[in-house]
Specification:
This protein is an alpha/beta fold and 307 residues long. It has seven helices and 15 strands. The protein has two domains: 179 residues, FAD/NAD(P)-binding domain (3-Layer(bba) Sandwich), CATH 3.50.50; 113 residues, 3-Layer(bba) Sandwich (FAD/NAD(P)-binding domain). The radius of gyration is 22 Å and the shape is elongated. Bound molecules: flavin-adenine dinucleotide.
Length: 307
């Protein structure tokens, strides 16, 4: 509590948080980033749709570059997990714990930017994180559907949602399947749509995935048949990371995502949000763009810098 009040605390050090740190530092605003190191970008084997990286770039390498860039501006990057954010007179009290131990600390800021992202729900298989980093489990058709051309792909999740993703995926692949435990829940119309688009519907009670010699995944289905796939896209939904907001009346949408206006302002004065935490297209370039918009709005709402 003895720390001086800072202009902005950024919760999250993924592409959104690190971009906002860069912009705010360049606006000569005192800024602290608090991050617990679980960026979705750290799961990406190769980012191929980010302009300027013609050969692609590994997600962790991109984050390391972004962190190095803000080091030039002396923005503290604190390893820790923010636990609560409370309104104070003229700002916010942000409490956080260390990632390596139970110690708890706090900082006071005039503004807070939530760049805390989301967490993907993983299928119940061993090594799901490692399989994602190898590109065998995938989470974003917009990101890597292009590279799936000619491969055997399956969408794994509730039947209706998996079918809708499979239909989108037909842009890239001829062999797309839906793996669901509730295919019975599909309407006649959905079944007809699947048939029209040659999307195979596979039903499994218990998911049994294994590596096999001729495929990355072999899936056992109810009738005992096995299906082989080169990659599987789980479409099981995601967990918003904004539980720290329980004390604040922040408007969220039906999926739990933070609602913002076009300047990335939330319903709480002084509290902003950007990136995957906001219900938008979950892409690095969008996270970066929203962070730039939020930073400018934060800068403009603060008193002018002393000359
Ligand atoms: C497998 C995979 C592949 C992808 N491929 C691509 C691609 O090719 N191209 C593309 O554009 N996008 C891709 N994406 C999406 C991209 O990763 C996200 O859109 C991007 O990382 C969002 O940035 P962000 O900063 O909003 O969130 P994140 O990168 O998730 O960062 C949020 C950060 O906040 C931290 N945090 C959360 N809560 C707290 C807290 N309470 N206290 C402290 N820190 C906290 C997290 O640990 C994390 O470090 C992919 C995603 C996945 C999962």
């Amino acid at each position: 509590m003895n720390d001086p009040i800072v202009d902005c605390i950024i919760v999250g050090g993924g592409p959104a948080g690190l971009t906002a740190a860069l912009y705010l530092a360049r606006f000569r605003r005192s800024t602290v980033v608090i991050d617990d190191g679980q960026s979705r970008a750290s799961l990406i084997p190769v980012v191929r749709n980010l302009a300027g990286f013609e050969s692609g770039i590994n997600g962790n390498a991109l984050l390391a570059k972004m962190r190095r860039q803000i080091e030039c501006y002396d923005v503290p990057l604190v390893e820790g997990r923010v636990t609560t954010i409370t309104r104070t007179d003229g700002g916010f009290l942000v409490e956080y714990g260390s990632t390596s131990g139970p110690s708890s600390r706090s900082l006071v800021a005039r503004h807070v930017l939530l760049a805390c992202g989301i967490r993907d729900k993983l299928p119940p298989i061993d090594d799901a994180i490692a399989l994602t980093q190898e590109g065998l489990l995938r989470f974003c058709a917009i990101c890597d559907g292009f590279e799936a051309q000619g491969k055997r792909i399956a969408m794994l999740g509730p039947a209706s949602r998996a079918l809708s993703h499979a239909l989108f995926f037909r842009t890239f692949c001829q062999q797309v399947a839906v793996i669901a435990s509730d295919n019975d829940a599909l309407t006649q119309q959905e079944r007809a749509l699947a048939a029209e688009n040659a999307i195979e519907l596979i039903t499994t009670e218990t998911l049994e995935l294994s590596n096999s010699s001729e495929a990355s995944f072999s899936v056992a289905c109810q009738n005992g048949r096995r299906h082989a796939f080169d990659a599987i896209y789980p479409v099981l939904g995601c967990l918003p990371q904004a539980n720290l907001l329980s004390g604040l009346d922040v408007q969220r949408d039906n999926d739990g995502m933070i609602v913002t206006d076009k300047h990335q302002r939330t319903s709480v004065d002084g509290l902003y949000a950007a990136g995957d935490a906001v219900n938008s297209l979950n892409q690095i370039c969008v996270a970066i763009g929203e962070a730039a918009v939020a930073s400018l709005a934060i800068h403009r709402s603060l008193p002018a810098n002393p000359l």
